[in-house]
Design brief:
globular; single chain; 8-stranded parallel beta sheet; 5-stranded mixed beta sheet; TIM Barrel; alpha/beta
Length: 742
């Protein structure tokens, strides 16, 4: 279904267009293929309703005009803005709206610091300096609204420490409040590598790991082995896919980028052998261990086996005298957790108890009865109380998973990996998952995050993920955002933020529409970056922003100012304003992480052979034969360009003629040459996908397909992790990296 794209709302002078623009919705956009799109009226209505600006889709012209007036006057309707960002070392203060008739009324303020300490002061608005207003249709320090003469003054405050503080101002019997976010200017920075500050490492999909001891998919035990291998190979960093909690009762829903929760971990990564109580379970516990050498992960078999053994281990853990010490540690950990863990465990219980969905194992809380849909209802409280042991079990799974992940991070630290684990934060969550149920007001309903058309997904993408509501985030001082960041920076030396452009804007598509029906919805970038900087510095965690695709003008420069590393992939690093040749190593940004590709892109072997183009053609993912032919021709040209780039650096393997790419295969020599080329870049970090080292042909995920059309997130590596340090492919790559990045 396509929303009416002919009915454009591109006239910025009509009320609907002005309202949308005032609320941060862009009225038109260009895709990377050079096509211009004007956002339809119907799409604007959908997005404004999802933001909570319009009460209904068929709002009248009068309703829209009234909403526009409210938005334009919003700065003056609150005595204080919802959020004020102050940078460490700057004078602290905030804009304060006061009626002219109240200038001499006493004004009392209180700042509650993050640690609970109180700061207080008193004054009168007449003693405050005038302040200007940016945006909102107001350009000066005065306004008249409903015959009220208003002024904007500047309320100076004492220097505040880095953190999240609450300001309350009381005057004339009325109170107002604001979130004061005091942030460092830049995120945590580290000079990875022991020589010139340029580090390197490996990147893995944890589920894809092979070992003789796992249960058919990689786990935290394999992660420990991968950390050891990373150290043995002389690397600084080990990248892993998102570890977010998925859907326990629908294990085949395996995408780590469409999780149930971005705050909690996927229990299926638990290493059974290192699980408290597991060694004491009855050997007769049912369950057939899945094959450890299959090419694809059988999630259903693996999940069934693991759940049976985890439940048996918990029963032992919670009662056996030999587990008393570990049980005490768990209870202490449990006492330190906030309400979100209890809510998450409650959600898992309700999903388990739900029998309303007979056509699918994937329960959807949005179809539950009203009492179940409300996390705070008496019905939910009664169910949780009557199933306390089961709720404790779901909490225990999180403790075990977090403990095992922490062990991997601690091992990386003990082995002196300069960065250590490099975690990945997905751009959103599934609408029927735990996060969306636990905190319903923070998500926009009826719209999905996606992406406009580009060369690798020519129809655009609808990821089916509800975006966070920027208005709600601001009102709540970004508490949900910072909780999510804190969780994902745990046990990490670096964090990759998937689709980092979401800090500034997200491409939002009305549910039921096509990607081309979408529009960009803005976030408050400075506020988001301030929270990111605080959490990054506190965690000692480097931030890498995945800035691929359509990047707003000036955005990369703003990230660089904030100390966020860019994410540069060889496939896209070309001279687009010239001959489309690959950039030379010295032309890469130094403030970046560099690699050849990523999970959504073809492997080096697949890229060279055009396997990804064949896969998309077989699945009718090209809108036209012309588009297919153009990409096929471009790929042929890219093979010439790549050989030419390697030859210019003196890296072309002996016997290869750069003018005859059809006679060349992407063998180990050429794969090594590509990685040596990337190692010569000035970029601070380099990650090498293990699939490329092993010569894999198929990519891990093919955008635009589901598991019925492509085995997304299921491919396993051919080489067990404990053999990496003996394999010539890994050893030769290590030697090259030591040569180029000493």
């Amino acid at each position: 279904m396509s929303l009416d794209s002919e009915s454009g709302a591109g006239n910025q002078h009509d009320d609907l267009g002005q309202l949308a623009a005032t609320c941060g919705i862009e009225l038109d956009w260009w895709d990377s293929l050079g096509n211009h799109h004007v956002v339809s009226e119907q799409s604007l209505r959908h997005l404004l309703a999802a933001l909570g600006v319009l009460a209904q889709l068929d709002a009248s012209d009068e309703d829209i005009a009234q909403a526009l007036c409210q938005e334009q006057q919003a700065t003056w309707q609150r005595a204080l803005p919802a959020v004020r960002v102050v940078y460490d070392g700057e004078a602290s203060g905030i804009e304060y709206v006061v009626e002219a008739a109240q200038l001499n009324t006493p004004l009392d303020w209180t700042v509650t610091l993050e640690n609970g300490e109180l700061l207080r002061g008193s004054t009168a608005a007449t003693h405050l300096a005038m302040a200007g207003v940016d945006g909102g249709g107001v350009g000066d320090s005065h306004a008249v609204i409903d015959e009220r003469r208003l002024q904007l003054r500047w309320l100076g405050l004492p220097a505040l420490p880095i953190g999240y503080h609450q300001l309350v101002v009381t005057s004339g019997g009325a109170s107002c409040d604001a979130h004061m976010i005091v942030a460092p200017r830049r995120c945590h920075e580290s000079t990875a590598g022991t020589g010139d500050g340029r580090g390197w490492g490996l990147s893995i999909q944890l589920y894809a790991m092979q070992s003789a001891r796992n249960a058919g998919a990689g786990d935290f035990g394999d992660l420990l082995q991968a950390v050891k291998a990373t150290h043995a190979l002389g690397a600084d960093i080990l990248g892993i896919n998102p570890l977010h909690a998925l859907f326990a009762h629908a294990p085949e829903e395996a995408s780590p980028y469409s999780p149930s929760s971005r705050v909690f971990l996927n229990p299926l990564y638990i290493d059974l052998d290192r699980t408290p109580g597991h060694a004491l379970i009855d050997p007769a516990v049912a369950g057939t261990r899945p094959s450890t050498d299959s090419e694809l992960v059988d999630y259903s078999s693996m999940a069934n086996y693991k759940h049976q053994r985890l439940e048996a281990a918990f029963a032992v853990f919670d009662s056996h005298p030999d587990c008393e010490a570990e049980r005490s540690r768990f209870d202490h950990w449990l006492s330190e957790q906030d309400k979100s863990l209890h809510d998450y465990a409650s959600f898992e219980l309700l999903r388990e108890l739900d029998t309303s969905t007979t056509d699918s194992p994937r329960s959807d809380w949005r179809r539950w009865d009203a009492e179940w849909r409300d996390p705070g209802s008496a019905t939910v409280a009664e169910l949780v109380a009557s199933h306390a042991t089961r709720v404790r079990y779901f909490s225990w799974l999180q403790w075990v998973a977090a403990s095992q992940l922490d062990s991997a991070a601690e091992l990386a630290s003990e082995l002196d990996l300069d960065v250590g684990l490099y975690r990945d934060l997905a751009v959103g969550i599934a609408a029927n998952g735990a996060d969306a149920w636990m905190d319903q007001s923070v998500y926009m309903h009826g719209v999905h995050v996606g992406a406009p058309p580009d060369d690798f997904s020519v129809n655009g993408q609808d990821w089916g993920l509800p975006p966070m509501n920027p208005r709600e985030l601001s009102q709540r001082g970004y508490a949900p955002f910072r909780t999510m960041l804190r969780s994902n920076m745990s046990a990490a030396g670096a964090l990759r933020i998937d689709h980092v452009m979401g800090l500034a804007r997200l491409f939002c598509i009305p549910a039921g529409g096509l990607p081309t029906d979408g529009a960009y919805v803005g976030n408050k970038l400075d506020e988001m970056l301030a929270v990111l900087a605080i959490e990054s510095v506190r965690a000692g965690c480097i931030i890498i922003g995945e800035d691929l695709g359509t990047v707003p003008d000036g955005f990369r420069e703003r990230l660089q100012q904030a100390g966020v590393l860019s994410y540069r992939l060889m496939y896209f690093e070309k001279h687009y304003d010239g001959d489309h040749g690959f950039r030379k190593p010295h032309e890469y940004a130094d403030t970046a992480l560099v690699g050849a590709n990523t999970h959504d892109l073809p492997t080096l072997t697949g890229f060279w052979n055009g396997v990804d183009i064949d896969c998309r053609a077989e699945r009718n993912l090209f809108p036209s034969q012309q588009m297919h032919d153009r990409q096929r021709n471009d790929r042929v040209a890219d093979r010439y360009r790549l050989l030419a780039a390697l030859a210019e650096e003196g890296l072309l393997p002996e016997g290869i003629d750069p003018t005859q790419p059809d006679a060349v295969s992407m063998d180990r020599r050429l794969i090594d040459a590509v990685h040596q080329y990337l190692a010569r870049t000035a970029s601070r970090l380099l990650v090498i996908n293990v699939e490329d080292l092993l010569g894999a042909t198929e990519q891990m995920n093919l955008p635009g397909t589901d598991r019925d059309r492509y085995p997304n997130w299921r491919r396993r590596l051919e080489l067990p992790v404990d053999q990496w340090v003996y394999d010539p492919r890994f050893l030769e790559t290590s030697q090259l990296m030591q040569q180029e990045r000493p």
